[in-house]
Amino acid sequence: MPLRSPSFAALSVAPSNPPERVGEALARATLELARLPRESALLAEERQGPPGWELRLTGRAGLLELLAARFSECGVDVAPVATGPAHFPDRVMGCEEFAVVEPVAPVEPVGRPERAIEPATAEERLGPVAVPLAEPRAGAAGLWFGLQTHLRPDGRGTVELWMRLRGAGPPGSASAVERIAPELGARGSLQGLPVAELRSIRPGGRTRREWESGAVRRFRSARPFTVRSDLVGRLLAAGVPGPAEGSAELRHTICFGASGSGKSAFLAEIARERVRAGRPSVVLDVHGSLGPELLAGLTEAERRRMVAIDPTSPFGSPGLALLRGGSGPAAELERAQLLAAFRRLGARDGEVYWGFRIDRVLDCFLALTQESGGDLRALGGLLTDPHRRELARLGTRSPTLAAFLEELPGLLRRNPEFLWPATARLGRLLLSPRLLACVAPRGPGIEPLALFAAGRSLILRLPIGEIGPEGAELLATLLLTRVFLELTRPSPPGAPPRPPVLLVLDEAHRLSPHLLADMLGEGRKFGLGVVAASQYPDRLDPQARAAAAGAANRHLLFRLPRAVARETGRWAGLDGALAETLLPSLPPGSCVEAVVGPRAPRRLRSVAPPLPADPSAWSELERRSGDEFDVEPAEGEPPEEEVRLALLRLPTPGGGSATGELRRRGWANEGTHGPELTREGERAAEALTWTGAVRESAAHRALLLGAARILARRGYLLELPRQGGFDRQMPDGRWRQLGHSATGRPQDLAAALDTARSGWAWKLFHGKDLFVEAEVSGALRPERIRHGLAKARREGAFVLFLVPDARRARRVRAALAAAGATRSETMVWTLPSAATGGA
Q1: What is the pLDDT of residues 304-356, one digit of tens each?
Q2: Which of 628, 209, 251, 293 is nearest to 461 (CA)?
Q3: CB of 831 within 8 A of CB of 823?
Q4: Between 626 and 344, where is the model more confident?
Q5: CA atoms of 392 and 382, how far apart (whole Å)
Q6: 260-264 long-range CB contacts below 8 Å, 24 or more apart?
Q7: CA 565, CA 580: separation in Å to the nearest integer?
Q8: How far apart are CA 695 and CA 606, in angstroms?
Q9: Among 474, 465, 477, 388, which residue's Cα sits nearest to residue 426?
């Protein structure tokens, strides 16, 4: 296609521009051109004659705009002009001449392998690729002269040049071409190109038409020059490829590109520059390679400015405590933030799977968890364990929460799935201790604002290959919601201004679209900038895609498949045909950059090649992060049976991890002589003896609590069956010699028997299961005693009667003797009604 067709545009370089700047700009444009597909081409025309010297560039409209950015960088003024034929006088018979410039030295093969070159200065790098159009000519008066240079990339990292001359003079003048030849030779064999010779072409109408239209059919019969580009890809990398944000403004940047196109190298360089400058950032790495690559090139002192959250760390990972307990406005704000994080998890495909029921359930259970000083582990227990909910109902100081828990059993009877939607929000965390540790750390959690105030950065390494896509999306959304909402909190009066924070998000489509849209739409007012990368726009949810298009003021397009190139090219304002040609052919590390704002044209951009990752440096950062925040060794949640035994056993020493769980729930603290029950712990222990019987009294519960503590101190947990009414066939308490092993394999049963026979309870209860009956007023009625004995005999169990004083003990023993009970069947314990635990 001739370069004069309507789909092309032209720029004119003013004569007032310094020649050395014009030469540098042309060299940079040539380097950019070498990285483009073969279909790209540029025509540079230098013309001299009345009224003066002029340089004009012609090419595809979008391509020309990209290359013109190099002229602006070099301080060269250009202006758009019409793409009409070159201004030459009417044909002068005998004085108009045409010639082509051909190399006479051997030309190196175009497709030769690239060779490594040591770093060089800008002048040395630009020298070998300068185009010979850098200065006006001082030809004789009345001489018209033109030099056309056609530049075409060959798709192999080099550029082919065809040059032709046109000269004209008044009648009787000497040959225009001959007069200009010495000047070309004096310019150093065309500035680094092989030595050239001029070959005349017979002038004629076809020759003139090809010149004026920019056609190259006949022109390409000549041998081209080959501009080597060994340093293409390194020239622009010498600059800073990161965003040029200042301290007062952060740009939102959106990057699109296929895998391996250079997005990660771009993100790593942005974060690396901020770490070097002591400016805080939060980096999201969902593939696991960005974090280690980011450390490459940093000194040891710079690496100490970073903290890593990595659930796969062998040293244990610090975390952000999403729920820390307490009361007052701070706790209310914390609850609101966590509720917002869970709500954002429900936003998918433009719909929000959230309703008033989930909102109310989670809000109430979060408030109950804060009252007890628990974390997300305790929240999961409340959602899944009816006994924990009953403990919370008896211990809460809020009438509203107590009323909610009182109506909850009726709701669950009518709809057993009532709590499932809320529980599902926590299910993935509760099933994975290493994920849970990142949002409910055992040690002190990271305080984001304090970290940013110290100029430090946070890396969230959440590799989907190790924790799964769902785990990565869940943690990323929860952690970044906490960071975002912390930054939106107003600073205390008199506090120094907060430093701006940059979020660097690799594979941003993994985030909740509602969260990403909020950060893009509202982040800048709170000093938050976002650099988000994804493979192509359709990977983003419509809500997030709209925010990226409307709120981001910079877009970078790396290499893209042809199927999405046309649509994605619109983000940078590229013509559809140009986008389909250009974007699929971009080499790794090259991109098209479009910045919103005045005097911000689109341009081609190069980023530094990725640095090799240093696994040892990342491992050291993980270890240092764990040590700094006192990460406790990872341990599983102790079974609920062990927690209840530890609760009943205190203040007797023992309990191990279960005692630690009591501290986390706020049921125990460290006293003078070891762990002691708190007031909440005392209420929880009393609640263990609540059976739900309609005729249950405080004295009745005190007796059961006393017996449960006696058994617990010997390692036996008394089971208290839940009774909706007074069940005459169910004991008040029950304990099995073999636990639930009787329904297991024969070898399990044999092992359980061997263990039970050596225990205290086997000898005391004659090898039988235990029924416990607490009798207060019933101790004075023999029929109640006989009924309790009959229930135990029916099941072959030993029955233990609990009474509050000696008088009732005598009445019970008399009733048992009258019923023919023996010592191998029954026993009576007298426990004070205060139920201090003694027998």
Answers
A1: 999 999 999 988 889 988 887 666 777 888 888 888 888 777 655 444 456 67
A2: 293
A3: no
A4: 626
A5: 8
A6: 260/588, 261/558, 261/559, 261/560, 261/586, 261/588, 261/591, 262/558, 262/559, 262/588, 262/589, 262/590, 262/591, 262/607, 262/610, 263/506, 263/533, 263/558, 264/289, 264/290, 264/293, 264/506, 264/533, 264/610
A7: 5
A8: 81
A9: 474
pLDDT tens-digit readout, 41-96: 888 887 776 666 778 888 887 777 777 777 877 788 888 887 765 556 555 555 67
Angle between helices 376-384 and 420-430 (to 10 degrees): 130
Regarding predicted confidence, which is higher, 159 or 436?
A: 436
Task: Determine the distance from the C-alpha atom of residue 618 to the mean position of all C-alpha atoms in its chain, rounded to a whole number.
Answer: 18
Distances in whole angstroms, Cα of residue 283 to Cα of each of 264, 449, 476, 622, 808:
11, 16, 10, 15, 71
Question: CB neighbours of 819 closer than 8 A, spacing ≥ 6?
Answer: 785, 786, 789
Cβ atoms < 10 Å from Cβ of 2: 14
DSSP 45-110: EEEEETTEEEEEEEEEHHHHHHHHHHHHHTT--EEEE-------PSP-TTT-EEEEEEE-SPPPPT
pLDDT for residue 124: 29
Longest dimension (CA), the chain: 151
Cβ–Cβ < 8 Å for 559, 233: no
Strand order in the sheet with 590-595: 306-309, 457-461, 281-285, 501-505, 528-534, 253-256, 554-557, 590-595, 603-606
**How far is residue 568's CA from residue 564's CA, in Å, rounded to a whole number?**
6
SS3 content of the chain, % helix, strand, coil (to 5): 45, 15, 40
Tell whether pTM > 0.70.
no
- How many DSSP H helices and E strands does the chain contain? 31, 26
DSSP state of 6: T
- Asked if 86 and 44 count as a contact pair (C-beta separation under 8 A), the reply is no
Which phi-psi region, left, alpha or beta, contains residue 527 (left: φ > 0; alpha: ψ -120 to 50)?
left
Span 152-182, pLDDT tens digits: 887 777 777 777 888 777 665 556 566 655 5
pLDDT at 814 over 60: yes
Strands (E), 265-326: 281-285, 306-309
What is residue 132's three-state secondary structure? Answer: coil
- Check if the beta carbon of residue 229 is closer than 8 Å to that of residue 34: yes
Distance CA 83, CA 98 (A): 21
258-287 burial: b if 16+ Cβ within 10 Å, else e: beebbbbbbbbbbbbebbeeebbbbbbbbb
- Quote the crossing angle between the two packed helices 806-818 and 782-795, to the nearest 10°: 60
Rounded to an integer, what distance in angstroms lies between the CA atom of residue 779 and that of residue 354? Answer: 54
Tokens 């240093």 belong to residue: 614
